[in-house]
Amino acid sequence: MPTKAKLHPRNQHSESYDFARLVTQTPELEPFTISNPAGQTTVDFQDVGAVRMLNRALLKTHYDIDFWDIPSGYLCPPIPGRVDYIHYLADLLADRNTQEIPRGRHIKALDIGTGASLVYPLLGQSEYGWHFTGSDIDAGALKSAKQICKLNGLKITLRRQNEPESIFRGVITPNDAFHVTLCNPPFHSSMEQAHRGTQRKWANLGKGRSKKLNFGGQNAELWCPGGEVKFIARMIEQSIEFADQCLWFTSLVSKKDNLQPLQRILKKAGVVDFKIVEMAQGQKTSRFIAWTYMKKKQRSLFFNRAET
């Protein structure tokens, strides 16, 4: 089977999907399978139902998630790219852990905008056993996330962000200490831009024109005024207040052109260190930025303190 370009070495999806195995684990996937022109089994990635069912099968087969579903219209994230972020975060944390990948519930992660899918906590708990706190402004998303936790017997802390302009305040309590925060920010500046982006994606994949958002998404998941630069800038500005409670703050950055203004914002914020981590996933390259207000000696001390 062909290898996908440069997925993280620990990513379970570096090869093509094993549909025979997936269908065995999740028989409901079989009606959604089709054959591509090369005669290989796949699904129609323009079909929202097929994408949702594929995710359900992947989560059950590879991550022992017996129940997973999301309400109609909510973001249905592609699993391989999402788990890549988790693996690279593990590498980031290993840097202050004598290069040993940190595992176990003493590692605390905060997922900003966890969504109805709860995908990052599900993947991170399964791969590394970390304890996750997920926050969201959307009550419907949190209701779905709570159902996923309940029906899988998972202990994931979920918190409602009641102030839309706040990111960390109201979510991080005075007693919290997080090794890492993560976020997949809304990266479009309007719904119209989101639809144009979808058109470009389908054209690049040779699929022609489609009005479908195959991975779905509510407004707050897809766009915000000013797009991802403004959202991440607000995150950086607000992170200063919690500089001694989080080892690394991180966020995905969908557009490479946005890195330069974000780097200027980070320098102005007075961070001690920041990194740009690139992740090549199939036909596209993604990346995340990470920043910390702690010096290297402080990071090691924090790592030990947060484990207690």
TrEMBL record:
NCBIfam families in the cross-refs: PRK11727.1
Pfam entry (one): Methyltransf_10
Sequence similarity: Belongs to the methyltransferase superfamily. METTL16/RlmF family.
Record-linked CDD domains: AdoMet_MTases
Residue ranges crossing the lipid bilayer per the database entry: none
Compartments where located: Cytoplasm
Coiled coil, from the record: none
GO molecular function, one term: 23S rRNA (adenine(1618)-N(6))-methyltransferase activity
Enzyme class: transferase
Record field: catalytic activity: adenosine(1618) in 23S rRNA + S-adenosyl-L-methionine = N(6)-methyladenosine(1618) in 23S rRNA + S-adenosyl-L-homocysteine + H(+)
Sorted UniProt keywords: Cytoplasm, Methyltransferase, rRNA processing, S-adenosyl-L-methionine, Transferase
Family annotation (InterPro entries): METTL16/RlmF, rRNA_lsu_MeTfrase_F, SAM-dependent_MTases_sf
Entry-linked HAMAP family: 23SrRNA_methyltr_F
Gene Ontology annotations for the cellular component aspect, listed alphabetically: cytoplasm
Protein's recorded name: Ribosomal RNA large subunit methyltransferase F
Biological function: Specifically methylates the adenine in position 1618 of 23S rRNA.
Signal peptide boundaries: none
GO BP, one annotated term: rRNA base methylation
EC numbers: 2.1.1.181
